[in-house]
Structure formats: C-alpha cells, structure tokens
Amino acid sequence: MSIGIPEIILIVVVVLLLFGAKRIPELARSLGKAQHEYKKAKDALKEEAEDLQKTVEKAAETKKEE
Fold this sequence. Notes:
By secondary structure, the chain is mainly alpha-helical.
C-alpha cells in the first residue's frame, strides 16, 4: 500500500487549510533546522562511541602486555 497522487494532493490541501500559505515556509524551515540538529547530535554520539571503543581497546592491549 503506497501513497498515490490523490492522497498527496489531499494532504497538501489540508495542510494549506490548517496552517495557511504564509506559515508553510516557516514550518519547513523549522523542520529543516530540527533535522540538522538531529543529524548533528547523531554524528556526535557516533563519534563519542567510537572514541570510547578505541579507549577500551587501548586499555585491553595495555593490560594484555602486562
């Protein structure tokens, strides 16, 4: 089950009626900023996890050598 052209048109009309044409660019901008912040936080967490993994591996190597 996929969304077709009539469903997309209906969604656009409903959004226009609810928010008005002037508010839609503002909403799109807010969604873009939120998406950017989410991606930035995800990348930061990924980098932190990689750093932690490297630290654990180094500690394991050091302990192994002793």
